[in-house]
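User: Predict the complex with S-adenosylmethionine.
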Amino acid sequence: MCTVKSLQQQMTLILKGKVEYPSKEAIRLMMHILDVDEIWIMLHQDEVIANVAKGISLAKKRAENIPLEYITKKVSFYSENFFIDYGALIPRPETELLIDEVVSTMGNLDADINIMEVGVGSGVISIILAKKLKNANIFAVDISDDALKIAQKNIALFGMQDRIKLCKSSLLDGMPKNIDYVVSNPPYIAYDAKLEKNLDYEPKEALFGGDIGCEILLELLEQCFFKHIKHVSCEMGYDQKETVEAFVSGHNGLDVRFYKDLSHHNRGFTITKR
Ligand SMILES: C[S@@+](CC[C@H](N)C(=O)[O-])C[C@H]1O[C@@H](n2cnc3c(N)ncnc32)[C@H](O)[C@@H]1O
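Assistant: Here is the predicted structure with S-adenosylmethionine placed in the model:
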């Protein structure tokens, strides 16, 4: 026999020294296995439960640095819940700023616009943009079959099949006509960067952008320039501002505006063709 309180204690002990907030993560895992909210756990500490082996096994997985989101198959982004699994990058909070950047560049939220997302991953950017921009049509691509499957599932969960079309393609290769706006959170980490252990579980093609990190980003910007895209908004590494500035000054007729993340690091930009 095991109570909620006792399982919570056992799971916290397994996570101690392995994750930053063992008690909080134990509660998150318990919410997942018992399908309850945090308040229920607080109010039912003496309740006897059956899912003990499952709880212990999930805590052990988490202690091996497997991201919580891959264990629970859930991720919160822009105050919405999405499905997530191995094969797609776990959306990061700073990427919410990329959405705000696109929306503020657009100004008119009712505009008829054709947006292309390059590197759709789990689909969160395209889905939130489609929710915010009611008349936008979105064409989203990725090179990863696994990511496309996860995006497809999220698009169906949000009933967005009519608004977001998915396609397997690299950068702008499969671009349809009349795209006004390209948005991307491309892989931008250098191959030799030292990474935290939990990143070991995320897809390499979602993280690494080349020897210096920004090769895929620069290739995307080059393709957008030659295809006369009006606006391009991208997330970037905090140390890639100078590279983007050099690209803009090396190409005629472009303006750029950068934005910072909540830690005041340069985190992304919008390039607009005059
Ligand atoms: C940093 S992840 C972003 C995922 C998602 N948009 C997000 O923000 O959570 C980059 C994505 O780009 C995809 N990708 C990498 N190279 C690509 C390419 N050449 N063309 C299209 N997508 C690519 C990866 O598979 C990955 O899903």
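Residues 22-34 form the longest helix (13 residues).
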